[in-house]
Amino acid sequence: MNQAPKTGKHPKGLMVLFFTEMWERFGYYLMVGILLLYLISDTGKDMPRAMGADIVGTFIALVYLTPFIGGLIADRYLGYIKSIFLGGSLMAAGYLLLAFPDNITMYIGLGCIIIGNGFFKPNISTLLGNMYNTDELRPLKDNAYNIFYMGINIGALVCNFAAAILRNRIGWGAAFSAAGIGLIIGLIWLAFNLKHVKHYDIKKPMQAGDMPFSRIFGSVFLPMIVFGIIGWFLPGNFMGSDSNDAFILACIPVIYFYARLWIKGNAEDKKGVGALLFIFAISIIFWTIYNQNSTGLTIWAESHTDRSIPNFMEQPADAVYTLQNLTTAPREVDSLDQFMRVVTDNEGNAIKTMGPDPYFANMPKEKWPPDGLAKVGNTELFQSINPFFIVAFTPLLIMFFAYMAQRNRPISTARKFAWALVISGLSALVMVFAVMSVPSIYTHKVSSMWLFLTYGVFTVSEICLSPIGLSFVSKLSPPRLTALMMGGWFLSTSLGGKVAGVMASFWDKIPDKKVFFGIITIAAILGGLLIFSKIKSLEQITREKTGSA
Q1: Which long-range contacts (C-beta less than 8 Å, at least 24 apart) are formed by 213-217?
Q2: How many angstroms separate the CA atoms of 419 and 272, rounded?
Q3: Please, what is the end-to-end C-alpha distance for the chain in angstroms?
Q4: Phi, psi of 374, rounded to the nearest 5 degrees
Q5: How far apart are CA 115 and CA 94, in angstroms?
Q6: Over the stretch 284-321, which tens digit does the pLDDT of each residue have?
Q7: CA 345 to CA 101: how far, in whole Å?
Q8: pTM for the complete prediction?
Q9: How far apart are CA 384 and CA 448, in angstroms?
Q10: How far apart are CA 373 and CA 12, in angstroms?
């Protein structure tokens, strides 16, 4: 018989899930960190930048849509452990398929990752929640999720160094394979330690008042598929590409479905559902800024950031293959205009010319290396800044929140959301100043310190919002609608990813990048102020549901 752990001690299952999730996130963030670079690089797929950003944005959007249905299937049919192994196996296969060079294999691989993530992501978190549903462990649940979130970010921190080493030393295929191998290690770890978690794998059969799966499919997913197909085949591109049109149209029946939940709900349901829909809508702005990491800021780091490193670090960094070797020697490259946009012929094909590596396109010639050779940090390494700050800042913010609570001035969940939006807007404002820090980003490189600063500011907002999102949903949702409202949270995340991809696809059409980053600065700060304007009613609804704000 398994005895309940003593009060104040985390069960061994926490570390089992911690390391499983750490390896899964190692694989995911390694892959998504280099995906755009792979698609637009002349050593990868050599796609136009807009097309690469469109694919990445669509991928991120779909990755965050599938957890809704994967969670429902696990709840009612498969169970959580089977779903985790199924999802993890599909994702590992997807990463390994990306190692092959042909396009069909690449799209199949991305599809496997999208479906696999739907089975893996929601269910490992649910399994952790089940673990802490006893009276002895419930007080430790928030602390457990903070520990779990640290595991996510340790994986995200380390993976980019592995990607850089393998990409420099062997090639793109080796880096994508490492993502798959990392996930396989996580699944093996889980398999060998199942005894610590299997008794928390409790399915939730449909209760009275729950919406049948068939009705959810008919009301949400079938119309979404139909509208998506219509959007894909509509003549012309209202949103810049077929995939953008398909995604936006597919969202219409889903948004309508959630609006009906609020309109048709009773007076009690309307409060919680209405508050959550309000938060979901504004959170799209936050997730748009969050996903700049894989889209706009990746382009910025690749093309506009001075990626040189201090002299004292060059030798050890080069010894472990985390530096790229670039040369000013002329070779065949894409011809660029004054705004560093690829010049194309009438058929849309890039016009080639002889010139140095594109990295030097916006570097004054007097700053070119005298011997024509330069060693610079890989672009994906900058994506480790955010998880590094997560690991560093999380304990500090937890202590701050505890300090405020001890002084009888606790910061409510709704206020954390509001501050998260404002602070995320300030992180985008940092990039406005980055653009202004040089005479022109098309003639001069920008210091890498601006990326450290923008990621540092954004990390504070992420800690305020991301770990508590699903907790807020569980607090305010009517019990019979909890799974559906969880889907709404993932929908807002999905929409934010897609908007980030759409914005990045218009990167070349907005030469003044102060406008690009200024748009999301203003949107985020206004979103935060809008939440503040409703803060009293949001806190009151939360008190009515849970007894505290």
Answers
A1: 213/72, 213/76, 216/72, 216/484
A2: 21
A3: 38
A4: -135, 140
A5: 10
A6: 999 999 999 999 999 999 999 999 998 888 888 888 88
A7: 26
A8: 0.90
A9: 13
A10: 51
